[in-house]
Amino acid sequence: MIPAIHLTGLLSVAVILIMTVLVGYVLVRSVHYKVSINIAWAVLALGMFLTERLSEAFPPVLRMLCIILVTLFGMKTVVAVEYYKEKANRLHFIQWISFVAGWFGMRPNLFETLGSRPLKGGDELVKFGLKRIVAGAGLILLSCYIYNNLSQEIFQVLSTALALVGLSLVLHFGILNISAGLWRSKGADTRTLFKEPMKSVSLAEFWGKRWNLAFSEMTAIALYRPLKPRIGEKAAMVAAFVFSGLLHEVAISVPVKAGYGLPLLYFFIQGILIIIERKLEYNGMLKNKLLARCWVFAGLILPFPVLFHKWFLKGIIWPLINW
Q: Is 310 part of any domain?
């Protein structure tokens, strides 16, 4: 049974989500870009603040889900206002709701065709997603077994790694691909948001073209493109990574009320590594694909404990596998 304080908080968060959708629809259709974008950022900040306060007593997992949803909905408005500032908005209300509440990607134009004839490739995406869910569930079950039956520290590390990979398979490669396939069957040109990341031969390719395209689309539209003419390409890129770090702080550190600054540090490191990477590429030091992939693997994995810090593991991951 849900405690009354949690139920009240959940209803309040639901109201915030609904209001974000409605206000966003009005802002995206406005012709006053500067006013709309300022209000959009204000709505995002207010929604995140209120949700953080309302979810204070929630269990960490529930608190995390609420904060992520409100942040996602708010960022959809910011991105859509930026995207349509020099274009005619073609989203009617059902298309807007579908984009905001039913899809994790950040390109609103994909839903302009929602309601038209089905697009090819939907069935393949659904099948791919189902296979990844099965594989991810298997890894999670194996992780649970190891965590609860083998007490040595090395096995606890292994079980944590398996859980993180398993959850990624279920969520990123499973549910999101199924979602993309279902929307394609309704005419929206949605596609996979995770495009074979293991084939990346550079960190720039990994973050910009293969891993979580929703995030790269969001930072490119809402931050990188507006800032690039003002502060330059390198500074805009670092700012985009810092912003990604702040959003991961919201999703990782805030729910467990600890580890502040560590996810931000991880993404700051990624931004610096990409600047270094460009110099290495310019000097021909990453021409060998094996060496390039080792560089990518090391750059992503070695700082991993900074991103998924011990407080996040203790508050979110370990309770999930401690059956």
A: no
